[in-house]
Each structure stands twice: as structure tokens, then as C-alpha cells.
Write a structure and sequence with these properties.
This protein has a single domain, classed as Rossmann fold. Helix 2 links the parallel strand 2 and strand 3. The protein is of the alpha/beta class and 273 residues long. The protein is built from 13 helices and 5 strands. Helices cover 45% and strands 8% of the residues. The termini are far apart.
Amino acid sequence: MKLDLIGIGPQRAGTTWLYECLRGHPDLCFPQGVKETFFFDVRFGNGEEWYASHFRHARPGQRLAEIGPTYLEHREAPRRVREHSPGALVVANLRHPAERTFSLYLHHLKKGRVAGSFGQAVEAMPSILDGSRYATHLPRWFREFGRERVLAVLHDDIAAHPERVLEQVYAFAALAPLPLPASAGERVNAASLPRFPLLARAATRGGDWLRERRLYGPINLAKRLNLKRVYSGGMGGAPRMDGDTRARLLREFAPDVAFVEDLLGRELPAWRT
């Protein structure tokens, strides 16, 4: 099996929106039972047969697709994807790098993976910064697939004109256009502090253990029952990015902002403030 379309992330940049828009398209087949397989980064050792088992439900004529929000920054992922599916089209979601980075910190905080301030979290998990290094990661994908086979879509444009962005993706992938799904307008993954951080951490690790063994049934049942409300969210009080942190991140990612502006041929003043 070969992928026809792959979303590479990064996290907190609109990948859930992209998935919700595309997963109902009759011409596409996404992995069964799970949104993200993490095959081309952390689970590559499971082998191609394991990965192919996620697409056994594909109907004749359907094209295979996956959204992998952690693929962008993984050093080996571009080569692995190209060797596995050389004809794939690639979609990268890009967001204001400072805001994306802080949003990912809040996401990990909610999941119980980190604790404390933003600075403490980055010290414990430096990878929080990695997904925003667009000038480092995107050229690797360009080298493997060619610039013309990689589409960059902006989180800002999704927020302002989601229909236009979806039309752009449809045209890029040569898909028959469909209306914007109602679910694509819902706010997902909102940030809040977990009620019970230790329980949130245990649930996250348990979910990872189940995914590794492709035991998606219990995970999906827990989602339908909204069991995470027991431990995650509802407390509010999520930290806000202070001025010093924002200034630090703006300096850190200034080359990446310049790279995206040059890539798209447009200025992004909101990304510089």
C-alpha cells in the first residue's frame, strides 16, 4: 500500500481541523480506528505490515491518507515517507511559531506530560520548541518530494477563511470539492489544567500503550464516553504567555518567520508581534 496524501503537522497548527475536513471524503481512506498511527516516527519499527493493517478497510478506488502531526520535525520521517510512498502529496500546517509552541506546552500540561512553568517544561521537554523550526524542517521535505508536492497552509487562514483553505487543499490533492463539514467549525483541544495531573499522566501513558498494540477499541470507547472529563480539563486557569516569554520566542523563531514569508511570498506581520 502507498499513501497518496499525508499531513505532517506540526502539532497545534490545525491538523485536527484538516483531519475533520478530509476524513469523510468518499475518495479518501484514513487509518481505521485511530487518527494518528505515528508510524513514520516513533513506531517505524513495527514494520510495514503493521502500518498496512490500518488500511485494510479501504474500498476499491480510494486513495490512502494520514494526518501525522509529529512527522514534520522528525529527522528521518521525510526519507521514510518518500521511500514508502514516493508519489505522496504533503500538507504542512503552519502557525505563528510562538503561539504554536506555547499552545503545545499547554497541551502537554493538560496531558500530564509536563508540570510547572513554560520554562521548566521546555527544560524537561525541549521538543516543545522543535515543531516551530520551519526553516530547519521544511527543506528536508522539499528535498525528498520537491517543492511543488508540498502545500503549506496557515493556521491564520484556517481561522479567517476555512472554506478557502479547504478549497486549496482539494485542488492540491485533485479531490472533488465538498462543503466544509460542520465538525470542522468546532473548537477542539482547548487548553485547561487537569483536575488530577497524576491521573492524567497515567491515562496518557495507558493510551500510548494501547495504541502501540493497536488496541484502539478501548480508546475510542473512552472518547465516546468522554471519560477524560474525570481527570482532564474543567479547572480552567491555564497559564497565559507573558511578555518576556513571547519576546524570547519571537527572537528564537525570527529566522523561521522570515523563511515562511519568503516561501509564501507574503508578509506575516502578526507573526512578528
